[in-house]
Amino acid sequence: MRRAIYIHFPFCAKKCAYCDFSSFAGSGIPPEEYVAGVVREMEFRAELLDGPGSAETLYLGGGTPSLLPPELVARFITTARCRYALAPDAEVTLEANPGTVTPETLAGYREAGVNRLSLGIQSLDDRMLALLGRVHTAAEARGAVVAARAAGFDNIGLDLMHSLPGQVTSEWGETLAQAVELRPDHISAYGLTVEEGTPLHRLREAGRLSLPDDEEGALMYQVTAEILAAAGYEQYEIANYALPGRRSRHNQVYWRREPYLGFGAAAHSFLGAPPFGRRWCNPHVPAEYLRALAAGRLPEEDAVVLTRREAMSETFFLGLRTTDGVDTERFRETFGESVEQAYGPEIESLLGTGLLDRDGNRLFIPASQLVLSNQVLMRFV
């Protein structure tokens, strides 16, 4: 069985103003202790899996994994190779903050086996970076791309964010133009969501935060597709664009609803058995996570065995995020009925309005309608 691997490093130099991810600014836990705990979890889980398997992707996310020295990142990769048959040509991604990398650490990550870098740039406007609470400048972001290329990385992704406070479409277009000049292999372009409990949410509640309205946000989304298409990037998911052959292999595992194992505090996992899948997560608090491992047990909680109907819903909700859409034959093989039998009225209605299209065995949201994807996806929840 093929399984993707995700490893979560939940620590950051500083918590960003928009972030509601499971991450913590600073830690009383030494990196070596945390890494040893994750390796222990990987070993425990490997002993309990049914039958041999292999892994074709490994993704180190966070938090800020680039706070780890290369030798500790190498421990993760070595364990994945030994315990999960990580393929020689596996895609191995490291998320990195431009303010935390140097030419030396980048060379070290490449030597350790990382072959794809995901740089969390978010903006190339210093005013916006300060507002978001990022620890790097636009110049450092550009320098990180140059340094990564020099270190031997030929697969680099940039994370960018639009609909920022006070931002207008022309400013976002300028950010995209500057990003394209760096010629990354992949660009993720997300609209800002102000999550409850974050500093930005408190500012908005106090009436001190001016955000673009929905119309302006939709225009930024459309401009993203236009600028990146003109620069040779293909859109393959709602917010993800890649040069030919450079789609994120790991993220496609999620959208295709394929198995993956998550290790580390707050990591999530999904396996295809029992028949329609099982999901679980690890404790969010790193100390609780490590205590479970020290007690000799897997730190697994909130396990859910999915029903057939829930699995069908996930197949549509995840698949329709991508330009590939839902494979109707695969759906029939998996669930023993056609998409029309499962969601006939919804599909007929969406086809009639043009929010959904069909090409052979593929149901998908047309590129021109992806800006309205939420209206489609919610029909299958």
Overview of the molecule:
- This protein has 381 residues and is of the alpha/beta class.
- The protein has two domains: 4-253, Aldolase class I (TIM Barrel, Alpha-Beta Barrel); 308-381, Arc Repressor Mutant, subunit A, CATH 1.10.10.
- The chain has 14 helices and 17 strands.
- The protein has helices at residues 31-48, 70-84, 103-112, 126-132, 138-150, 169-181, 199-205, 214-230, 249-255, 286-294, 308-319, 328-335, 339-353, 373-377, and strands spanning 4-9, 11-12, 24-25, 55-62, 86-96, 116-122, 156-162, 186-191, 234-237, 240-242, 260-263, 268-271, 278-281, 301-305, 326-327, 357-359, 362-364.
- Helix 2 (70-84) packs parallel to helix 3 (103-112) and helix 6 (169-181) packs parallel to helix 8.
- The radius of gyration is 21 Å and the shape is globular.
- The two termini are 28 Å apart.
- The mean pLDDT is 95.
